[in-house]
Amino acid sequence: MEFGTTFFIIAALVIAIWVIVELKRFRHKVFAVFLIALIIFSYISFNVMFNNRNLDFKSISGITEAGKIYFSWLGSVFGNLKTVTMNAIKMDWKDNSNSTNRQ
Predict the structure, then answer these.
(1) Dist. CA 66–CA 54, nearest whole Å
(2) For 4-31, what is each residue's pLDDT tens digit?
(3) Would you kindly state where each structural domain of the chain is located, as residue ranges?
(4) DSSP letters for the chain
(5) What are the angstrom distances between the C-alpha of 12 and each of 4, 15, 18?
(6) Are the C-beta atoms of 36 and 25 separated by less than 8 Å?
(7) Integer-rounded Cα radius of gyration of the chain
């Protein structure tokens, strides 16, 4: 009887330690995926923004101008997302299955 109880307690401790380690590893994985997504988003958005623009990235004024353009574009993207979200919230999302127009 003592062997079963001791084995159960040791198994529970091992499982608890394993879960704690996996949770820490999961947080690091989530953070790593977030950083990778941020880098990919930044790369693609820079390419989209500066594709047809003639900017000099070798001078301070060119880098400043590029930063102004990029952050202005990024602000307008978030503004547009806010507008779309607000309009989606205001829509009538009720179920129309009991409509009188059914035939």
Answers:
(1) 10
(2) 777 788 888 889 888 888 888 888 888 8
(3) 1-36, 50-89
(4) -HHHHHHHHHHHHHHHHHHHHHHHHHHHHHHHHHHHHHHHHHHHHHHHHTSS----TTSHHHHHHHHHHHHHHHHHHHHHHHHHHHHHHHS-----TT-TT--
(5) 12, 5, 10
(6) no
(7) 27
Task: Give the pLDDT confidence of 48-76 residue by residue, as tens digits.
Answer: 877 877 877 788 988 898 888 888 988 99
- Give the C-alpha distances (Å, rounded to integers) separating 91 from 78, 80, 85, 86: 20, 17, 10, 9
Measured in Å, how far apart are the chain's first and last C-alpha atoms?
72
Crossing angle of helices 2-49 and 60-90, rounded to 10°: 120
- Kindly report the pTM of this predicted structure: 0.54
Between CA 2 and CA 83 the distance in angstroms is 66
